[in-house]
């Protein structure tokens, strides 16, 4: 089949075979991208109109016990500046976020053993007590099923855990031996079964990635059927072993966003900070390719520079209120609007209502 036919097929069937994804990923032209985005844009509008959901991101700890080869927070990076926010700091961020009109707070950190399950549960329940109409998303890594259940019972609504790559061999080249794709998948299955809205995703252009790896990612997404999918280009960090590896491209990242929109029509897909970092209008390009979420930074200014997953991270110098206004301007310039709502996954909510 030609690329045009494959894109048409994907827009109707919402899935392709592995070799068909490989063909599109490795041979697409600018014309193909245009066609893909015309479909992905239309599909996103059918489910979510021109709404873009904003998530206030609170990076509450830069300590990490893991040693992921690509990440600036890895424990071997002895030059990284480490910090932790207190419960009061976090609540202060939420207060500012609530005033700025954020209906979701995303709590993200390295895997920091200081934050025991009790502490996480306390943070979640304090936020939910103050802001019962807002969603809390956790992004704190691999935990036991019991831990995930405890956070859920404390009120957490959603959980982000990227699978990073669905190819086991590739996974082992990005991670130390103690981290396995198998356990990642176990975590994601547990999270879904417990009842979270689950987000997963991967880096585009990470070292040793091939078109086959990305096709595996697409098949894995189809199988897991997460409510959210976050992807961003790999960006090297100068104090990791991947410092000299080339960064991913905005071109391929937005092409993958288009494929994800057609594969999982109702997914919530962020235009990520990494994409905005490598391209001055990366966020806009992401939205136009089918994304419908932005995650502006809500962390205190004093710690922004210390949560460095990769070099040159965008927006670290801007106040939260500045980020909010800048985003509003950028979105409206391309005909989109920040939605004043939690922005839950539409099918997830429909299913829950039907079950009640
Ligand atoms: N500890 C949490 C949060 C990790 S940071 C967890 O494990 O889920 C969030 C995401 O940043 C990661 O999942 C990874 O996909 C991305 N990331 C890390 N280092 C990166 C890099 N060098 N370039 C691009 N993205 C990176």
How does this model look, in words?
The chain has 356 residues and is an alpha/beta fold. The chain has a single domain (3-355), classed as Aldolase class I (TIM Barrel, Alpha-Beta Barrel), CATH 3.20.20.70. Helices cover 47% and strands 12% of the residues. It has 15 helices and nine strands. It has helices at residues 3-13, 18-27, 30-48, 87-99, 117-130, 145-154, 168-174, 181-194, 211-224, 250-263, 273-278, 282-288, 301-304, 320-333, 346-355; strands at 51-54, 56-61, 104-109, 135-139, 158-160, 197-204, 228-233, 293-294, 337-338. The strands form two sheets. A six-stranded parallel beta sheet has the order 2-3-4-5-6-7. Strands 8-1-9 form a three-stranded parallel beta sheet, with helices on one face. The radius of gyration is 19 Å and the shape is globular. Bound molecules: S-adenosyl-L-homocysteine.
Short description:
The protein is α/β, with parallel strands linked by helices. The chain is built from 15 helices and nine strands.
What key attributes describe this structure?
356 residues, alpha/beta, TIM Barrel, 6-stranded parallel beta sheet, 3-stranded parallel beta sheet, 15 helices, 47% helix, globular, binds S-adenosyl-L-homocysteine
Q: What is the element layout, followed by pairings?
A:
Elements: H1 3-13, H2 18-27, H3 30-48, E1 51-54, E2 56-61, H4 87-99, E3 104-109, H5 117-130, E4 135-139, H6 145-154, E5 158-160, H7 168-174, H8 181-194, E6 197-204, H9 211-224, E7 228-233, H10 250-263, H11 273-278, H12 282-288, E8 293-294, H13 301-304, H14 320-333, E9 337-338, H15 346-355
Parallel strand pairs: 1-8, 1-9, 2-3, 3-4, 4-5, 5-6, 6-7
Helix pairs in contact: 1-3, 2-9, 3-10, 5-6, 6-8
The structure holds S-adenosyl-L-homocysteine.
């Amino acid at each position: 089949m030609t690329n045009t036919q494959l894109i048409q097929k994907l827009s109707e069937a919402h899935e392709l075979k592995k070799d068909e994804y490989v063909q599109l990923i490795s041979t697409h032209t600018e014309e193909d991208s245009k066609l893909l985005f015309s479909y992905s844009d239309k599909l996103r509008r059918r489910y979510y109109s021109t709404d873009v959901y904003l998530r206030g991101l609170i990076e509450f700890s830069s300590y990490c016990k893991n040693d992921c080869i690509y990440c600036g927070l890895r424990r071997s990076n002895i030059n990284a500046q480490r910090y932790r926010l207190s419960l009061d700091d976090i609540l202060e961020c939420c207060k500012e976020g609530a005033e700025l009109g954020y209906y979701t707070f995303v709590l993200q950190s390295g895997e920091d053993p200081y934050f025991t399950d009790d502490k996480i549960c306390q943070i979640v329940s304090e936020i939910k007590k103050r802001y019962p109409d807002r969603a809390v998303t956790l992004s704190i890594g691999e935990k036991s099923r019991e831990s995930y259940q405890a956070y859920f019972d404390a009120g957490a609504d959603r959980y982000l855990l990227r699978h990073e790559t669905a190819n086991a061999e590739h996974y082992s080249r990005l991670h130390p031996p103690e981290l396995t794709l198998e356990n990642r998948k176990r975590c994601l299955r547990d999270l879904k079964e417990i009842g979270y809205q689950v987000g997963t995703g991967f880096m585009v252009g990470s070292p040793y990635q091939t078109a086959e790896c990305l096709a595996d990612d697409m098949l894995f997404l189809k199988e897991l059927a997460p409510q959210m999918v976050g992807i961003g280009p790999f960006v090297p960090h100068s104090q990791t072993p991947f410092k000299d590896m080339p960064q991913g491209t905005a071109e391929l990242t937005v092409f993958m966003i288009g494929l994800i929109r057609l594969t999982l029509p109702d997914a919530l897909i962020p235009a990520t900070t990494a994409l905005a970092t490598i391209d001055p209008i990366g966020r806009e390009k992401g939205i136009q390719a089918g994304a419908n979420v932005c995650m502006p930074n809500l962390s205190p200014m004093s710690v922004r520079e210390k949560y460095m997953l990769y070099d040159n991270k965008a927006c670290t110098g801007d106040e939260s209120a500045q980020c909010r206004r800048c985003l509003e301007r950028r979105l409206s310039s391309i005909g989109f609007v920040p939605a004043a709502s939690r922005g839950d996954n539409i099918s997830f909510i429909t299913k829950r209502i039907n079950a009640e």
